[in-house]
Amino acid sequence: MSAPLTALERDALTELVNIGVSRAAASLRKMVGAEVLLSVPSVEVIGHRRAAALIGEREAGELVAVMQEFSGAFHGRAMLLFPQANGLELVRAVLGESMAEADAVGMETEALAETGNVILNSCLATMANMLKRSLTMSLPRVVRGEGTFLLAAEGEEGLVLFLYINFSVRDRSIRGYIAMVMDLTSLEALKELVRDFIERVMGDEGA
Amino acid sequence: MPVKVLIVDDSKLARIVAGRALAALKPDWERVEAAEAGEALALVEAGGIDAVLLDYNMPGKDGLALAEELRAAHRAMPIAVITANVQDEVIARARAIGASFIAKPLTEEGLRGFVSGAALRLRSGGA
Lengths: 207, 127
Description:
heterodimer; A: 8 strands; B: 5 helices; 49% helix
């Protein structure tokens, strides 16, 4: 493995993701009007296929993904993933219960793209700010398919940095994942920034 | 006896950040750390802890559940929950428990109010 993370780098990266996703959860909470529950983030350097399989193994059915590519000092793909059946439920939660079924269905893709955009931007912007680098985000795309297919969309080989976290909405059948995938070139650049971040926040104790 | 503060966070980095901010505000206060709820409860049980700073999102028992348990046994202990998760329900639960809510990323400024309040409460408690 060319770019493993030290224990402290992994710790710092997990904490960055945790803070980013916590902010994102607060944004989602405003949109759906109910508490958003989060798991503890997982940060792993694994084979690309293994990353695809990680979600694929847990989710048998079709998934919906809102995907955005980010680029700048490091680049990769951020995703909001949830079971296909949850898509409409999320849209209803965002648009309000009063919306007619047909209207909600008609707006599903657009509403998912916008919801994903708010959540993923909130998460990545928080992380970028803490790392003191700006990131550019592409427009959101809504893609449907199996977990393995969605995560393997680029058909890459080799190791990737795979970050993911589970979320659910209290009292509603909405749950899913926020995930980020970066290749090893980006991991090198990110490690550099994480080291700077550690130095900034720890000062002399980081030495 | 100096005030002793327990810092609970699964992230070592976050514990160091909290420790530094606290040291800047109260250089004479002692600091102890725990990486999860069980370790924290054992330390508090053993005695000598005056105040606690708790991370919210931790593996196993989260910071609010831990705060609730600590509050049940220590009615006057200053407790703060530190998180970037600024959802109304999280803030409301912290309030209901009688814990302060402090935003992550933690700064000296963010911690100042809680620390001043804790210092006052501990003094007036005549520990």
